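Wait, mind explaining this?

_____
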Amino acid sequence: MKNKILYGILGIMLLSMVFFGNRAYREAKSYETITSTLVAQMSAKKLATFQLKELAETFSFGYYKNDKKRTIEALKAKAQTHKAESQRNMYWFMLLLLGILGSFFLLSLRAFTFFGALAASVTLFYGLITPIMMVTIHKDVEYLGDVVLSFESKGVIGSIQKLFENGDVVVAGVILLFSVIIPTLKTFSLAFVAVFLQSRFAHGIVTFFKMIGKWSMVDVFVVATFLVYLTVNKGDVSRAEVEVGLYFFLAYVIVSMLVSLSADKMLHKQKA
């Protein structure tokens, strides 16, 4: 009876993770869309028009109102609201994830491996589809101010797609294999192992992932690559901003390692 109650609570927590993950994703995409709209207002032509309207407002002693200025300020406020909401929902998601990991002390290794694998799958999903970073290339132009030359906001899936479109097939294929295909197969396989513990095939799955265990660090490498890109000092021509997708993906890497250790310990205990 006690286990059924715990399983029910964990099921509700998983559904809640999906709820907050969806909200974090939607808010992050809204932030991305509004930021893109703001960036479009910072081209050289748009800024020149804005500066002329600013002068008109100044010399008209307030009779002429710069509506564009108020529009931009409203968009900035709206963008910050969406950003804050995406972060808030991400924090709730992570709190629920920590709760599921904390069930290690209450559940059997088999049950923990199963629920941990499901939680890892949900975390990976949002880590792949949610924007990871936002990069703008800009230049300070005399009389106009900060002119934006280009704007990019991508997640893992979006980055892979762009690499394919640009002809970087090898790089795109490596990231697709080690950051999408293998992690997805790994998490679902861990859940399969927990359900079909007695199956010889289940033991073969764990053996297989042990063999490719050294490649699991590629997940960490991908995250590290993004971080290095973000922290490199490129002077005054680029600006990078970390988005919530990076935290989802990083959380998946950690949870996946913990669940893998749990599965390995579970099989050793079952053999003994």
